[in-house]
Structures are given as structure tokens and as C-alpha cells.
Here is the input.
Amino acid sequence: MKQNHYFPNMTNIVDSHCHLDFKDFKNDLDSVIKNAYKANVKHMLSISVNLEDFKDVYKVANSYDNIYCTTGIHPNNVPDNQENNEFLFEELSLNLNKKKVIGVGETGLDYFRNEHNRINQIEYFNTHLEVSGSLRYPTIVHTRNAEKDTINCIENAVNKHSSKGLIHCFTSTKELAKKVLNKGFYISFSGIITFKKVDDLIDVVKYVPLDRILVETDAPYLAPAPFRGKRNEPSFVTHTLKKIAEIKNKNVEDMAQITTNNFFNLFSNFN
Here is the structure.
């Protein structure tokens, strides 16, 4: 049976995390965006993962209506050598002054892939959080096998700089969710919530308040069921939204309105 992910009468939906500048979309980006609009995914946040390719993510955001972008360095792209972070603060700040750049990141800590450069990852993460607090832009946080250091960095940044943000593609524990929620952060769920044997993650969805939930694809990665294993794209976020609505005992239209409102409450700096 063909899976329907088009909801023509639904409130506009936001894909709060995708990578539309990636080569996976090089040959059919126009079609991907049209599919998203058709599915009522009318807003997309395309995420930066390094400064070298920022020009590409920036170009995508400024080529389409209602697509925005961020600026940042993914923890897997943090260099091994010690570098002066002054350039990072300055360049992130300059990029945030550009049209349709509305967030800082993707940043964070990933000890699963890069355990050897923890110190540098923490330094870069702290700089992103400082920029977030200083300029009042949300931080998009990636965390994997690094819960303790992640929450330490966030708590320090909130206390010192009043930083704000979200944990994207949340797959961590309820304990981490509780701590970041207590610091005013939001939590974004991806297509992983539609997979089998994710009872712990379902418990987290049940725990997170409605006014702190976002939905995302992380496209081109992590396509939800029934597309698991295929290239993900923003239109598929509707399947994640449906699953979240089911878990929270809400109808899909209400959940669309809730998550869209949450996005615009968090990302309020539009230029």
C-alpha cells in the first residue's frame, strides 16, 4: 500500500533540521523542495556543518522561499590541532548578520566518532554557545556518547551567557532531556522515533512537554519508516510528526501547529 505523506489541509509544518546543500540533493533539489511544499512542509532549516561550505548552505537558503540556514562546525569536523578560537567567534558572528541565517550550529560533542579530540570539541562547542548567548541566536546541538560534558557545557553557557537552543535528533536518555529542558532548551525528534524497538525514546517523547518539541528529518539521513534505508527528504518529516502525535495522544493537525509554533518561538531572529 502506498504511504501518503501529503496533508494538504494541515497547518504549515517545519523541518527543523536538514542538510539541503549536501551532494545527495545536487541533481534534484528543486523537486525535493516542491515535494516538501506539496506535503505542507513550508519551512525548512538547512544546517551548516563547517565554515568552508557555509557559502553553499547560504546559497540554498537564499534561493528558495521559507528556507533558512545556520552557521557552525559539526563536532566531527573540529580539527585535531589546537587553534585560536578567536577566529571562530568572529566568523560565526559575521555569518549571523547575513540574510536568513537564524541559528548557530550544528555544534556539540561526539565521542563515538572522535573521542581523541575531546578538548578541542569542548572548546569549539563552548565558543558556539558563547556566540549564541552574546547575539541571542539558538544553538543546534549534536551529542553522542557525551552526555555529561554536553550538559556541563550547556549549563555553564546558560548560566554565563543566557544561551538557548535545542538538542537535535534526540536519542539520549530521559535524564539528559530533563536537564536540558530545565535550562530552557528544546528537543527535536527525527525519523528514528518511527523505527522498531525504540521504547526508551518513546518514553522520552512522552516526558517532553508539548511546548518544547520540534520535529526534523536530518535529511538526507535517517529516513523514517516506511522509507528507512532510502534517502531522506523534508517531505518525510510528516511521518515523524504523525508518530509524535500518536505518542502524545494528539491529532496530527494540532501537533503540526504545536511544533511549528515551538520552532518560531525558539528561532525568532529573522533577518
Notes: The first helix runs from residue 29 to 38.
